[in-house]
Amino acid sequence: MFGIIVGTHGIFAQELLKSCEMICGEQKNVRAVTLIPGEGPDDVVKKYEAAIAELDCEGGVLFLNDLFGGSPYNAACRLVIGNENYGIVTGVNLPMLIEMCSAQMMDDGSDIMALMEKAVEAGKNGTQTFHASQISDDEEEDL
Amino acid sequence: MNIVLARIDDRLIHGQVATVWSKVTGCQRIIVCDDEVAKDTIRATLLKQVAPAGIKSHVVDLDKAIRVYENPKYENEKCLLLFTNPTSVLYLVEHGVDIKSVNIGGMSFKEGKHQITGAVSVDDKDIESFKKLNEKGIELEIRKVDTDKKVMLMDVLK
């Protein structure tokens, strides 16, 4: 099992995890870490370490951060640089988190690089557009 | 037709269905079986837009659902059937559709319904249909997602 840590500016991480649980049910091996105004990267590093201590991280740790270059990301980098089983993906969104929770549940032994790639793909595919002009009446799709 | 899941969920295709159930069942098609929804062109069109990648979604009325079920062309297709209410399920069962278990995911609260669990509210007609399904030996289990513990509907109906 790998651990998932969602690290963001403000309580976005907590709420994102709650939203994810509305869809996937309770998640036991995921932690939300928040950077609140007045805190710095050092505080976040401590929170990450505390989260890692609580989680089953035998298969590594995947950090999902909100912003590339932001403090939650920078703090995660400090931990990731020293452990090859750790990885970061930025631009976290709900589709990405859901995909990683379901990957965690399947626990197929994917390494962290494969998981990171999967997270990126889910995050991108979760961004779609819809406009009235896109409706196609695909007759061949009828039963 | 291989019915991999028959689910009552009046939100039809939404997060839990699109991301969790479609994956765990490995279904090839999601078929919404409902007379009202099939008549509502806008709702039907929108439902077809939200099928998860690689899965076809359809909206049919109940008689069409029975014809599709009987069509040998779809004999080996893994289908996830979605309903908004148990009366529709009963109609299919009474017309020979072999459903052994019904998953109840969500029936929203409306005037005249009473809430039996957080996600499930029923009225007298629903209860009547559930009782008939139960008498036929069909399992009626309440679960939002597959990892939830099954709660038997007949136990909470009492």
UniProtKB/TrEMBL annotation, chain B:
Taxonomy, superkingdom: Bacteria
Phosphohistidine PTM sites in chain numbering: H14
Signal peptide extent: none
Record keyword Kinase present: yes
Alphabetical list of PROSITE patterns matching this protein: PTS_EIIB_TYPE_4
UniProt entry tagged with the keyword 4Fe-4S: no
UniProt keyword list: Cytoplasm, Kinase, Phosphotransferase system, Sugar transport, Transferase, Transport
GO molecular function, one term: kinase activity
Active-site residues, Swiss-Prot/TrEMBL: H14 (pros-phosphohistidine intermediate)
Pfam families in alphabetical order: PTSIIB_sorb
Localization of this protein: Cytoplasm
Single biological process term from Gene Ontology: phosphoenolpyruvate-dependent sugar phosphotransferase system
Main location: cytoplasm
Cellular component, GO, one term: cytoplasm
Annotated positions of the N6-acetyllysine modification: K73
Limits of the PTS EIIB type-4 domain: 1-158
NCBIfam families named in the record: pts-sorbose
Protein name per the record: PTS fructose transporter subunit IIB
